[in-house]
Every structure is written in C-alpha cells, then in structure tokens.
Amino acid sequence: NSRSDCPPDVEALGRGTWTLLHSIAASYPESPSKSQQSDLLSFVKLFSKLYPCWVCAEDFTTYMGREVPRVGSRDEFGKWLCGAHNDVNRKLGKPQFDCSRWQERWRTGWNDGRCD
Ligand code: FAD
Asked: What are phi and psi of 54, to 5 degrees?
C-alpha cells in the first residue's frame, strides 16, 4: 500500500515543505511593502522554531545566523531560500541547484516549455 496516507517521514515532510516555501517565494511581490517584508521575516523565524524535524530546524536556524534572510524582493528571497535549500542538499550529499533558475522551477516553468 501507499505510504502517502501514513505520517510523513523526514523526506516526505521535507518535499512538502520545500514546495510550500518556494511557492511562497514565487508568489511574493517583486516590490513588497514594509509590512509584507516584516510578515515574511516573522514567518521564516517562526518556521525555524516550529519545523517538526528538530535537527533540521536547528541547522536551518544556524544557516539563518550565517545568511540573514533577505526579504526585499521576490528574487532576493527566492535566491536566499535556494541557498538555504542548497545548504541542506550539500549536507545530504544531493546535487546543488542552479539558483539562477529558481523561478523556472517554481514560478514560470522551464524555458524549454516542458511545463506548458
Ligand atoms: P528536495 O530536497 O525535497 O527538493 C524538492 C525539489 O526541489 C527537487 O526535486 C528540486 O526540483 C527542487 N530543488 C532542489 N534544490 C533546490 C534549491 N536549492 N532551490 C530550489 N529548488 C530546489 N533532511 C534531512 O535528512 N536532514 C536535515 O537536516 C534536513 N533539513 C531540512 C531543513 C528544511 C528547512 C527542510 C524544508 C527540509 C530538510 N530536510 C532535511 C529534508 C530534505 O531537504 C529533503 O526535502 C528530503 O531529503 C527529500 O529530498 P528530495 O530529493 O525529494 O528533494
């Protein structure tokens, strides 16, 4: 039977969470207001406290100390988040993602049209 109706393990939780986080970046304004910027910053900080994989949350908090979240525009936040995801990829021995293409993956679809 499928594992998709069982409690999520670290992998399933991670995949679902990255989808949400990158999608939040994709829908974030290009020119956010001060209050949109402070909402996003609060969200990211609370997220790092509440994420229900404690080692993951601890390392994510350490990353935020090294690389302060950048919420000044959609592309700035998307690239910051891509860097955070790459930091986890590095730790897990997964390939690095080319952050210049984050919008193709999460917002517009790939330039070769394969998501059209
Ligand atoms: P995922 O890493 O889940 O990625 C999903 C998709 O995102 C990929 O298929 C790719 O298309 C795209 N993608 C990949 N890299 C990037 C990027 N840099 N930018 C944009 N898009 C990208 N797991 C652990 O075992 N230990 C941990 O400490 C840990 N920490 C985590 C911390 C956080 C904040 C989160 C959200 C998850 C963490 N995980 C951790 C889970 C881990 O990152 C993966 O989600 C999980 O291993 C499943 O990996 P996956 O290969 O399916 O792809």
From this structure: -70, -40
- Name the residue at shortest CA distance from atom 26 of ligand 1: 56
Please give the average per-residue pLDDT across 26-36, as a whole number: 98
Going by CA atoms, what residue is nearest to atom 3 of ligand 1? Answer: 15
Look at ligand 1, atom 52, and give the residue with the nearest C-alpha. Answer: 15
Nearest to 84 by CA among 25, 11, 9: 25
Q: How far is the CA of 36 from the centre of ligand 1 (A)?
A: 26
In order, the DSSP letters of 86-97 are: HHHHHHHTPPPP
Using the mean position of ligand 1's atoms as its centre, give its distance from the Cα of residue 35 in Å.
Answer: 29
- Distance (angstroms) between ligand 1 centre and the Cα of 26 equals 17
Distance CA 87, CA 74 (A): 20
Long-range pairs, 48-54, Cβ under 8 A, ≥24: 51/17, 52/13, 53/10, 53/13, 53/14
Query: What's the whole-model pTM score?
Result: 0.97
Task: Note the pLDDT of residue 1.
Answer: 61
